[in-house]
Amino acid sequence: MFELTYLDLEENKEYLEIIDEVLKECYREEKLENSKLTIQITLTTPENIRKLNKEYRNIDKETDVLSFPMFEKEEIDLKVKNQDFPYEDILGDMVISIPRVEEQAKEYGHSFKRELSYMVVHSFYHLMGYDHMEENDKKLMRQKEDVILNRLNITRD
Question: CB within 8 A of 123, min separation 6: which ones?
Answer without folding.
Answer: 65, 66, 67, 94, 96
